[in-house]
Amino acid sequence: MRVAAALRAKGGDEFAKPGNIIEVKFVKGESLSLTASRLLALMILTAGGDAWEDKPHRMRKADIRRGHKGNERITDMLQELHRTLFAVDDRSWRGKKATTLFSLISRSREETEEEGEAGWIEWEFTADARKLIQASETYAVLNRQAVLGFRSNYALKLYELGALRLHRRQATWRGDMTALRAALGIPPEVYTDFAQLRRKVLEKAKAEIDQLAHFRVEWREIRQGRTVVEIEFRFEPKDTPALIATVDELERHSGGRRQRRDGTVEVMTIVPAIAEQKPAPVPAKSAELVFPSGSIRFGAEELAAIARHDGGGWDIDLIADGFRQQMGDRIEKVRGAKLLKAWTGFCEGWVTRRGRAS
Question: Which one of 150, 155, 198, 303 has the lowest number of neighbouring Cβ atoms within 10 Å?
Fold first, then answer.
């Protein structure tokens, strides 16, 4: 909750989602739709570090609609969150193993007098949900634009699982087919043939994650004979050029995103007549943050602070040299918020690849 509060105070698109909520199980045969999953993510983003408190939270309808196309009704999404049951392993009053069933929100209000997006919604998390949030010792840092950009609910769930495990010593998830279905919310009667599940779920989810997330995902199929009995996902942070490409993609309009992912976009180049060409204006000196050529200890306090926080105790100038080497000539073109995003991702990836300094 401290991380969630800090990210909300910082502003921007990143927010923390408790690991206990990411790993909560759906009751057999149930799962949230993509739109309801997005709404839940926005609710957690909005509640921030107060999500565990017994208090109402509020959000503008405009902040919900911004991530959706078409005519999805907020009422439908709220009702889905109310009626979907989740399950956690627990103990009974006799100390026996038990399963607790609960929903995530206890009540909600949607303003109906306002037309369009001018109104607000208000909700309260259930006592069980608040207890789960407060007890969570792990969290995933998610990107709001990425969450709203996914077109597959399975991709969104796998994205959350990956973000939760990315910076652990073993950045993997492994389970049998029952655990896989429970983790991604795949109904038992859907994609019963693994080849179909691979094609319809795993390959599509990987394609979206590789395009929109700050990491990549690979998987390994464990077989008994010809039957796949387990699957292991491996999550790897992207290098800096790939991370910058992801930031660029998230800033672009979602129209044509699948075509860009598949490489089927037709690029049209318009060349003006020679007589109409004008010399390019000389850009004014940018006030945006740039990466220094020397030590980042002096005059680059923001970059140095990120390296100290996310660099695992390594010498910050050693990390900076690695960043320059990986970026090459691109380093002169990356500035401002995009530079901070790329630098943070590189520092986190440095620790993932090399471990923490002794």
Answer: 198
Whether 199 contacts 193, CB under 8 Å: no
* Spatial separation of the C-alpha atoms in residues 350 and 308, rounded to whole Å: 12
The helix/strand/coil state of 300 is coil
Q: Dump pLDDT digits (tens) for 308-354.
A: 888 888 888 888 888 888 888 778 778 887 788 888 888 887 776 67
The H-or-E segment that residue 324 falls in is helix 316-327
Assign residue 256 a region (left: φ > 0; alpha: ψ between -120 and 50; beta: otherwise): left
Q: Residues 152, 185: contact at Cβ < 8 Å? A: no
Q: Which amino acid is at 179?
A: A
Helix (H) or strand (E) run with residue 350 in it:
helix 336-354
**Residue 233 and residue 202 in contact, taking contact as beta carbons nearer than 8 Å:** no
Which amino acid is it at 56?
P
Quickly tell me which residue has 């989740």 as its tokens.
86
Which tens digits make up the pLDDT trace of 318-327?
Answer: 888 888 888 8
d(CA 14, CA 169): 23
Note whether 140 and 164 are within 8 A (CB): yes
Q: CB under 8 Å to 47, separation ≥6 — which residues?
A: 4, 57, 125
By the 8 A CB rule, do 52 and 134 touch? Answer: yes
